[in-house]
Amino acid sequence: MPLPAQDPAVSLEPMMLYMGRLARAAAAELAVATTEQKNAALEAMAAALEAGTEKILGANAKDLEAAEKAGRDAAFLDRLRLDEARVAAMAKGLREVADLPDPVSQTIASWTRPNGLEIARVRVPLGVIGMIYESRPNVTADASGLCLKSGNAVILRSGSDSFLTSLVIANILTEAIKSAGLPGGTIQLVPSVDRQAVGFMLGGLGGAIDVIVPRGGKSLVERVQTEARVPVFAHLEGNCHVYVDETAPLDMARDVVVNAKMRRTGICGAAETLLVSRAAVDTHLTPIIDALIEAGCEVRGDPDTQHTDSRVRTATDEDWDTEYLAPIIAVKVVDGLDDAIAHIAEHSSHHTDAIVTADEAAAAAFLSRVDSAIVLHNASTQFADGGECGMGAEIGIATGRFHARGPVGVEQLTTFKFVVRGPGPTRP
Questions:
Q1: Which of 19, 127, 129, 317 has minimal CB crowding within 10 Å?
Q2: Geometric angle at alpha carbon 79, from 74 and 80, rounded to 5°
Q3: What pTM was computed for the model?
Q4: Tens of pLDDT, residues 198-209
């Protein structure tokens, strides 16, 4: 049955531990579910979202009203807001995940030893994923679909601002999964906004949770990394850069920069800093600043940038390290490629960084030397998205180095085991 909002009279810890046991049991079934079973469930989930659009938007309207009363900014409200197109996009994402190859049981590598042992490294699910996220209710569907396709159960903990929307989405998806013959414990959303729930999840729920995926602001991710007793796929803030050198076609540079900053300012792939080669100041800087301001962006710059355009406000040292998630960009003139890479190394959050150039050698150097999860040449940082990478959707952009990096899709939600077959040899 659908999860109700949590009764305060009910103790949170026993409920959380019970959810962990349900998830562990579901994970055991999902690990051996066929591709056909999982795809049928994903199709049922997509259809259920479409059929439940009105109900979803009704809950979202209540969340939006509360967020507006709480004084949330425009970028936050944009991340929270759903409409018919965004619900349709959630359903489309689930169908795209269904179309992806099933990673479970894929043989990554295999070889035969002289003694006749046939050894294979085979993909298997991680088990139970704990997903902690804030304002974006579409994550409820994205994470659920990816976890199911990769054979994992998931326990979701949404932010309080998106709670009503996320709860409705989770209940719709759960009923669809059960109708397709898979266990209801496949997807569970914590029916409480009590912050203690996060602490219980970080503790692993008695060994039920195998990995935690945080998706939200810097404070959330830092808490998760500090307190978690299980592995974490870190999704840090997106302090993303675009570097424009003197060989960049002007129209391309202007279009890429404006799109990277202004398409959706409240997402982690939005550009926050523009770096312009000193050799490009006379040809590129003014047209790009003009286009940004015309698009409604506030520009903060170093003295060289301010000298170029009086409308540019003064950038402080803090600006180079700020994820604005708003129509604001910091602009700095740099002394070429090496200076740009050095600035990114010092200030980037290692999420997504881009170069716009016609110089293939400069592009190759940037792509190899910039240490970020996603690096781009002649493309907007807004493409830092699993769907745009052909992964259907993503749980988040992992900025760490272990197990998963960049968009976390179905393949990244698996681990592997060694499967060994032999003709009966014994070890001397």
A1: 317
A2: 95
A3: 0.83
A4: 999 999 999 999
Domain, as residue range, for 361: 240-383
Neighbouring residues of 275: CB distance < 8 A, sequence distance ≥ 6: 241, 242, 243, 244, 331, 332, 333, 334, 340, 343, 344
Residue 103 lies in a domain: yes
Are residues 81 and 204 both part of a single domain? yes
Contact 232, 214 (CB under 8 A): yes
172 and 312 share a domain? no
Q: How far is the CA of 213 from the CAs of 38, 192, 210, in angstroms?
A: 22, 19, 10
Q: Please state whether 315 falls in left (phi above 0), alpha (psi between -120 and 50) or beta.
A: beta
Query: Quick one: tokens of 125?
Result: 């699910």
Length of the chain: 428
Structure tokens that stand for 379 in this block: 């493309």
* Residue whose token pair is 């980037």: 348
Phi, psi of 79 (to 5 degrees): -65, -35
Write out the two tokens for 204.
Answer: 């692993």
Segment 224-234 shows an average pLDDT of: 87
